[in-house]
UniProtKB/TrEMBL annotation:
Signal peptide: none annotated. Its main location: cytoplasm. InterPro entries: AB_hydrolase_1, AB_hydrolase_fold, PHA/PHB_synthase, PHA_synth_I, PhaC_N. Keywords: Acyltransferase, Cytoplasm, Transferase. Residues 1-29 are annotated as: Disordered. It is found in: Cytoplasm. It comes from the Bacteria. Residues 16-27 have a biased composition (Low complexity). The keyword Zinc-finger does not apply. The keyword Coiled coil does not apply. This is Polyhydroxyalkanoate synthase.
């Protein structure tokens, strides 16, 4: 689930500023401070009035209820054993006694080693005052001590199942991220200095942005992560030239214009996730995987999924396979004369591609000659943090919600992906936007992330139940069109890419899924996460990759024996693809054959906003 987003590369763009240089002015501008305070009170009144309207008053969130129930089970597990509870309380008390002692030494001007220090990647406490000022240092360390103690309680709780423990860890992360002293004006020295330096004008601007984001979210806060005015699909993102050569209710098929005199005879079909827009693979010319593939001599076709609405409520998983992948292969055959394609699927697009491979193997109608799966899960045993949303009760709640409109709102999926990394994807923007009063800068990846898509009820329900909840594809129990699907019957070559820091499709999950196929699988692990590990162009590679032998034994054993390579995995993949079908033919011009152009890339479906 791409995000979604999914997604780790989005964390690279979270607001991380160097320690600020501004200090409080020698003399405050009392008049400006009073004027800004008045504007702030007025704006707060408007927000409160809007919140208190009967028709707009939000009811209790189902997510909050689930969180309370889950953490309650952990509490019950500890309270059932008074001796262990006392030991845990004593441990926490001792840590705070140590902290009091350390703080006392600091107040006396003496050096003191920290009792609890932030992790190196934690930028929330980078401002010097967090360490130099004993008051803020105490707040920081007290927060870290309490947070780590609570995490240990969840980890060490007896009598709870693995799923409940996983959910508790996830929900605890949301709570502790929210309660960080770095998120509040009164407990963050950087924010205090910033507010005094601006005489409170930052808070007025921030509340104005908060009101705008509440309006944009239809009463629910939609935290802006980027300036959307800086981008336009087809103008400065998704700009690789090509033509839409086929369209139906679910897809537009884009054929990209060649840049070489000859191309590989076998065309390539890209199956992106339907939970995101396809142009993550074509953000800009410097990062575009699609542009790079065209430059290597591939005839590239890419599916652009419709942004569904109530008319698509009954489009199920089988519809997405038949009207999506299979219809695209038919169109490619008409355009190129080739009856077999190489196919590449990204995230849930890869899961759909694997299902299609299993269907073709079961029916004997093989038309995909090789498959590339990018951060794709086919075995959901180790499905990462998104699995916390996929138990029977929560899926039923999602289904009830989808029945109201016929689809799941894209914003809800985007929020779920953001919750995977709240310290990177939520709270830095809350602080930066609403307290510092700074509008976010324009960033293409975050623009794509905010360009959410809806999900039709029938398709999403089938996917959640058969993949996340019941893991039927991996078990050989998935049924589509009265056909039972078994990945062991898939004999075509598979290139299976995982990324090392992926929280959506964990590398161990992708590795386990590699064992489900019946043919040769080249498992490769790239550096970084769900997005940045895939979009890693050879011209400016940020991360390397690992290759190894067959997918046998444990994942840890494969990693220990793997060979590390510097640079992008793209050329390695191209060699794998070329070795299967090296024959070349004259370049094909999109729209010049049996399928006339229906309009220029990137088409019309991608422009449909939620």
């Amino acid at each position: 689930m791409t995000s979604p987003q999914q997604r780790q590369a989005r964390t690279d763009a979270a607001p991380r500023e160097a320690a600020p240089t501004e200090t409080a002015p020698a003399a405050l501008d009392i008049e400006a401070m009073s004027r800004n305070a008045g504007q702030l009170v007025e704006a707060l009144g408007r927000s409160a009035a809007r919140y208190l309207k009967p028709e707009g008053a939000p009811g209790p969130s189902t997510e909050v209820g689930e969180m309370v129930r889950t953490l309650g089970r952990v509490a019950e597990a500890w309270l059932s054993d008074p001796n262990r509870t006392l030991e845990a309380q004593t441990r926490l008390s001792q840590e705070f006694v140590n902290l009091w002692g350390s703080t006392y030494l600091k107040l006396q001007g003496q050096p003191a080693a920290p009792v609890a220090a932030p992790e190196k990647r934690d930028t929330r406490f980078a401002h010097p005052d967090w360490s130099e000022n004993p008051y803020f240092d105490f707040l920081k360390q007290g927060y870290l001590i309490a947070t780590r103690w609570a995490e240990d309680l969840v980890e060490e709780a007896d009598g709870i199942d693995d799923h409940t423990r996983h959910k508790a860890q996830f929900y605890l992360r949301q709570v502790t991220s929210m309660l960080s002293p770095s998120n509040f004006l009164a407990t963050n020295p950087e924010l205090i200095r910033h507010t005094l330096a601006e005489n409170g004008a930052n808070l007025v601007r921030g509340l104005k942005m908060y009101e705008e984001d509440m309006e944009a979210g239809g009463g629910a806060l939609r935290v802006r992560q980027t300036d959307p005015s800086g981008f336009e699909v087809g103008r400065n993102i998704a700009v690789s030239p090509g033509e839409v050569v086929f369209r139906n209710d679910l897809i537009e098929l884009i054929q990209y214009a060649p840049t070489t005199e000859t191309v590989f005879k076998r065309p390539l079909l890209i199956v992106p996730p339907w939970i995101n827009k396809f142009y993550i693979l074509d953000l800009n010319p410097q990062k575009s995987f699609i542009k790079w593939m065209v430059e290597q001599g591939l005839t590239v076709f890419c599916i652009s999924w419709v942004n569904p609405d109530e008319r698509h409520a009954d489009k199920d998983f089988e519809s997405y396979m038949n009207e999506g992948i299979e219809a695209a292969i038919d169109a490619i055959a008409a355009a190129t004369g080739e009856n077999e394609v190489a196919a590449a699927g990204y995230c849930v697009g890869g899961t759909l591609l694997a299902v299609t491979l299993a269907m073709q193997a079961a029916t004997g109608r093989r038309r995909i000659a090789s498959a590339t799966l990018l951060t794709t899960q086919v075995d959901f045993t180790h499905a990462g943090d998104l699995k916390v949303f996929a138990d029977e009760e929560q899926i039923r709640q999602v289904e009830d919600r989808m029945q109201e409109r016929g689809y799941l709102e894209g914003a809800r999926m985007a929020n779920a992906f953001n919750m995977l990394r709240p310290n990177d994807l939520i709270w830095p923007y809350v602080v930066n936007n609403y307290i510092k009063g700074k509008a976010p800068s324009a960033f293409d990846l975050l623009y794509w992330n905010s360009d959410a898509t809806r999900m039709p009820a029938a398709n999403h329900s089938y996917y959640l139940r058969n993949c996340y909840l019941e893991n039927n594809l991996a078990k050989g129990k998935m049924v589509l069109g009265n056909v039972r699907l078994d990945l062991k019957r898939v004999k075509v070559p598979v290139f299976n890419l995982a990324t090392r820091e992926d929280h959506i499709a964990p590398a161990v999950s992708v590795y386990k899924g590699s064992k489900r196929f019946g043919g040769p699988v080249d498992y490769v692990m790239a550096g970084s996460g769900h997005i940045a590990g895939v979009v890693n162009p050879p011209a400016k590679p940020k991360y390397g990759f690992w290759t190894g032998g067959p997918v046998k034994g444990k994942f840890e054993e494969w990693v220990a024996a793997a060979t590390e390579h510097p640079g992008s995995w793209w050329p390695y993949w191209l060699n794998w693809l070329e070795s299967q079908a090296p024959e070349r033919v004259p370049a094909r011009v999109p729209g010049g054959g049996a399928l006339p152009s229906l309009g220029p890339a990137p088409g019309t479906y991608v422009r449909m906003r939620s």
